[in-house]
Amino acid sequence: MVRIGLVGVGFMGWIHYLAYKGLTGAKLAAVCSRDKTKLAGDWRSVRGNFGPPGEQVDLSGVKKYERIEDLVADPDIDLIDVCNPTNLHPESAIAALKAGKHVLVEKAIALTPEQADAMVAAAKASGKLLMVAHVLPFFPEFKYAADVIRDGRYGKLLAGHFKRVISRPDWSADIGDAAKTGGPAVDLHVHDTHFIGLVCGVPQGVHSTGVVENGVVQHLTTAYTYGPGGPSVTCTSGALAMAARPFVHGYELYLEKATLVYESGTLPLTRITSQLVERAPLPEAGGETAAFTAEIQAAVDGVTSGKMPDLLSGQLARDALVLCHKECESVLTRKWVAMD
Questions:
Q1: Is pLDDT above 80 for 156?
Q2: Which residues pair with 262 in a beta bridge?
Q3: Does any domain span residue 315?
Q4: Quick check: 64 and 93 in contact, CB under 8 A?
Q5: Could you give the CA distance from residue 167 to residue 169 in angstroms, rounded to a whole number?
Q6: Residue 175 confidence class, pLDDT cut points 50, 70, 90
Q7: Are residues 154 and 144 in contact, defined by beta-carbon separation less than 8 angstroms?
Q8: Using alpha carbons only, what angle is made at residue 291 by residues 288 and 297, rounded to the nearest 5 degrees?
Q9: What pLDDT score does 114 carry?
Q10: pLDDT in tens, 274-301
Q11: What pLDDT digit, counting tens, does each position of 235-254 carry?
Q12: Of 162, 236, 237, nearest to 200 (Cα)?
């Protein structure tokens, strides 16, 4: 039984808590929060952009800690699940790794590539797993696209466009604070760069245009350069939509023998071949937190086996963060920017 210590009881901590209920071979053993009200089980103040609002929860039998130093020192904890604001990820994850704990940290891995490098190095030095919770590949529509591209059943990917659009986040002081999250070009767009890196690899460079407010990139459109024979890939991501505009993400992918089209809320995953236009076969939806349960289950299985789950790779998450920073550099300089 993998015993989990949850760090941070904000929106993502709440979503992870709900996801734990579907896990096999794991349980919530401890919670760490600076908020004594939340340690008492009153999570009714928690809000997010999807899922149910927070509730009163039963934490009987669960250890409570106000300091992460005390949590990571607990010998009964196997996996530290870091769900506090992104600016606190490096400190929290490195403390846990140095204490000999496996770590699952919410995306983005960190605010800067240098911090991400320090986290990856700490994991290597400790011999423990540093896993980063990028949930997108666990959503059925994105899992299907990744599987199709990686196994080549419809030939190679020739071109594609990804989209991720939200209204300005006003449901959390932390989520709207670029100093804590990196702004939409990191906190939101890193979902896209992670998935693009997963299915296409790291590009040679990027050219991005965007909207900047107070020095923070709020919206961008990027073309990724893969060189001769590589796919032609673009992405639009940002937080400029009016409040009544629902969150939307999706893609249009052009493979040699099929086209895949998906847009959340409006267009179910559709597979188009030379002869057919049909709904792609997907498993039945398991609720709003099903993808998070699958993601955390992969982390639990990684702890049990001692093997890094490829979808949760710290290196892949680090590369996704670097890509976001290169795109921001391109927006600000109005130039093509090479990857290192």
A1: yes
A2: 251
A3: no
A4: no
A5: 6
A6: low
A7: no
A8: 130
A9: 97
A10: 989 999 888 877 788 999 999 999 999 9
A11: 999 999 998 888 999 999 99
A12: 162
Contact predicate 195/269, CB 8 Å: no
259-263 vs 248-255, strand pairing mode: antiparallel
What's the CATH code of the domain at 163? Answer: 3.30.360.10
What tokens were used for 252?
A: 């249009």
Based on the structure, what is the number of domains in the chain?
A: 2
Query: Facing residues of 130 across strands?
Result: 103
Crossing angle of helices 113-126 and 314-333, in 10° steps, is 170
Which residues constitute the domain of residue 254? 137-285+320-338
Question: pTM for the complete prediction?
Answer: 0.94
Question: What pLDDT, on a 0 to 100 scale, did the predictor assign at position 138?
Answer: 97
What is the token pair recorded at 168?
């300005």
The residue whose two tokens read 């982390």 is 299
- The span from the CA of 53 to the CA of 289, in Å, is 13
**Residue 313 lies inside a defined structural domain of this protein:** no
pLDDT at position 173 is 52
- 219 burial (CB, 10 Å; 0-12 / 13-18 / 19+) is buried
- 264 and 244 in contact (C-beta within 8 Å)? no
Do 126 and 149 fall within a single domain? no
Range with the lowest mean pLDDT among 77-81, 115-119, 288-292? Answer: 288-292
- The dihedral sign for the CA sequence 185, 191, 196, 198: positive
Q: Is residue 284 within a helix (H) or strand (E), and if so which, with residue range?
A: none
Residue 311 resides in a domain: no
C-alpha distance from residue 143 to each of 98, 195, 282, 303 (Å): 33, 10, 9, 22
pLDDT of 172 > 70? The answer is no
